[in-house]
Design goal:
The complex is a heterodimer. Chain A is mainly alpha-helical. Helix content of chain A is 75%, strand content 0%. Chain B is α/β, with parallel strands linked by helices. The chains are: A mainly alpha, B alpha/beta.
């Protein structure tokens, strides 16, 4: 062993190297990443807020209500997909994760790294969505006082998305990818109060109850509370609390699943 | 100096299975040795390697690699061993050179040193020309070489190779074995699994034969072939006389002095395992067969091989 090499490389250094690998790969495929995360929400924004508005079906206010919801959706889904899709492949066909599982750090930290990367990528996608969304709409709502709440809620929300992604990524066999994602992802997207404020569902009580079980609802609500506080919303503290609880829950579930896949 | 690998009373039972995958296995690998772990599919080789490389949790027993308890301190153990799996697990998002560099980064090597080591190893493994292409373009042999180079990046003391030459062309196989011998000469202990008995006989200092999770034999290849199956074999292609049958011929041949036992091979010929040199028994065997009016069409002498030992110990049943 050569003299200038640390005899005991620290787990912290291994963690940073693994995170750097993922950031490096994201950077290498940045345009692919951007298309992956931004295209779908942009089309949604364009059709619902612009096209329907031009036809007179929705008002200008709706555009301002939709943008924060779409930002929440983008962050949430980016985090979820950053973890789940690659993990399913890395554990089965490509086995790419093995080299990292054999790095000198506790195995659960490899899962924590996946969550960390997911939050970073989700925040990047949210940062991109605001200006691009504003370009599509011609204007964007802005509320400077809500900035801290916005950042905190996006971090927590993408953590929840990443936790769900980790749970799915370690539970779903590769042969079931398309089925499970159709069955889980689509309902998750449309019951998450992204395209409508939760309080507006009073007249559809059953649907309001259904949406209350989706963590994304609370992210959408708190992002709207930060950006367009005039729209009636669930109290931010309730939203943050639900996000913290569900983030903890899904992280625990996901790490358990990860350990089961990593060690037999 | 402590053993490179030590396995004591190792047991692994997977959930919902009623037999142990590894069932009280014990063996020791000395530093600087090339050690072969042989066994039919499902014998427990991969599970044993899995425990030693911290990917499988042992049910009971002890396992150490380079003196570190892999069960109690897996993180420390990972610094000291490296694994080359049978199927490629290279990082397809990275180039070959980056595969090496990032591996060293995971192990805490500073940038300048990991780049220098990557360049040296790429050169040594004949990959310098194709170091910056896509990993997907690599052939099986190149991927295998790159994985060994990657394993060497963090200077392990023990290298685990899982069926390293399966599916390789003869050139790649020869190159692979030169590299493995070279590693031993640098003091790296090599533990490998293989189904290629000739290869194991030629390469390994010692061989352990495993089946049903238990160690059946452990010795040098020469020691195993000498001890278990006698001196040599005599293969006879015979057509029995009308009214006679081949089993009776085998029984008669087994009575010849110097024949330990006989069996019918898949190709219809008779194999005799001998306690003496094969040359001295051709005459007596042919005499017995002539006396029964059987026609001998071919005679082949051979010394026992590791494959004979392997079949002798683990049987002919398909797994």
């Amino acid at each position: 062993m050569s003299a200038d090499v640390d005899i005991r490389p620290s787990a912290g250094r291994a963690f940073r190297a693994i995170l750097w690998r993922d950031v490096f790969v994201t950077g290498k495929e940045f345009w692919v990443f951007l298309a992956q995360v931004a295209l779908q929400p942009l089309f949604m924004l364009f059709v619902f807020a612009k096209v329907l508005n031009a036809g007179g079906y929705v008002t200008d206010d709706y555009a301002h209500l939709l943008l924060p919801g779409i930002v929440a959706l983008t962050a949430f889904l980016t985090a979820l997909q950053t973890v789940s899709f690659p993990l399913i492949m890395e554990f089965s066909f490509t086995r790419e994760i093995e080299d990292r599982l054999l790095a000198p750090l506790p195995t659960y930290l490899v899962a924590v790294e996946k969550l960390t990367l997911a939050v970073v990528r989700a925040l990047a996608s949210a940062v991109v969505m605001f200006p691009v969304g504003a370009l599509v709409l011609g204007s964007a709502p802005w509320h400077a006082d809500g900035l801290i709440l916005l950042v905190v809620s996006l971090i927590l929300g993408s953590w929840v998305g990443a936790g769900i992604g980790l749970s799915l990524g370690t539970m779903v066999p590769p042969s079931k990818i398309s089925v499970i994602f159709a069955v889980i992802l689509t309902p998750l997207m449309f019951t998450g109060a992204t395209q409508y404020p939760w309080k507006s569902l009073e007249s559809m009580r059953w649907f309001q109850v259904v949406t209350a079980f989706n963590p994304l609802t609370y992210l959408s609500e708190v992002v709207r509370a930060a950006v367009v506080p005039d729209v009636p919303h669930i109290a931010p503290w309730i939203c943050l609390l639900v996000l913290v609880v569900s983030g903890t829950l899904f992280t625990a579930l996901g790490i358990r699943g990860f350990m089961r896949r990593a060690l037999s | 100096m402590s053993a490179a690998v030590e396995v004591r009373d190792l047991v692994k039972r997977y959930p919902k299975r009623d037999v142990n995958a590894v069932d009280g296995l014990s063996f020791t690998v000395e530093p600087g040795e090339i050690f072969g772990l042989l066994g039919p599919n499902g014998a427990g080789k991969s599970t044993t390697i899995g425990v030693l490389t911290t990917r499988v949790r042992a049910t009971s027993g002890d396992a150490t690699v380079a003196g570190i308890d892999v069960v109690r301190d897996p993180v420390a153990a990972r610094r000291l061993f490296a694994v080359v799996p049978q199927q490629s697990n290279l990082d397809r998002s990275l180039t070959p050179r980056q595969n090496l560099a990032f591996h060293a980064a995971y192990h805490g090597y500073p940038r300048a040193e990991r780049n220098a080591r990557a360049a040296t190893l790429l050169d040594e493994f004949g990959l310098a020309e194709q170091a910056d292409v896509k990993v997907d373009w690599y052939s099986g042999g190149m991927a295998q070489r790159l994985m060994i180079a990657r394993a060497m990046m963090h200077e392990p003391q023990v290298l685990f190779l899982d069926e390293p030459t399966t599916g390789l062309d003869p050139q790649s196989r020869i190159f692979m074995w030169e590299r493995v011998r070279d590693l031993r000469s640098r003091g790296v202990t090599v533990v490998l699994t293989t189904h290629d008995m000739d290869e194991a006989a030629e390469m390994c200092d010692r061989v352990g034969i495993v089946d049903h999770g238990k160690l059946l034999a452990l010795d040098t290849p020469a020691g195993l072939t000498r001890g278990v199956a006698g001196q040599g074999v005599l293969d006879l292609s015979v057509t029995p006389a009308p009214g006679d049958d081949i089993d009776k011929l085998i029984a008669a041949l087994t009575d010849v002095a110097g024949v330990s036992r006989g069996e019918l091979l898949g190709n219809g010929s008779i194999r005799l395992y001998l306690a003496t040199e094969p040359e001295t028994l051709i005459g007596p065997a042919v005499t017995v067969l002539s006396a029964r009016s059987a026609t001998v069409t071919d005679v082949h002498m051979g010394s026992t091989t590791l494959e004979d030992v392997f079949i002798d110990l683990t049987g002919r049943a398909l797994r």
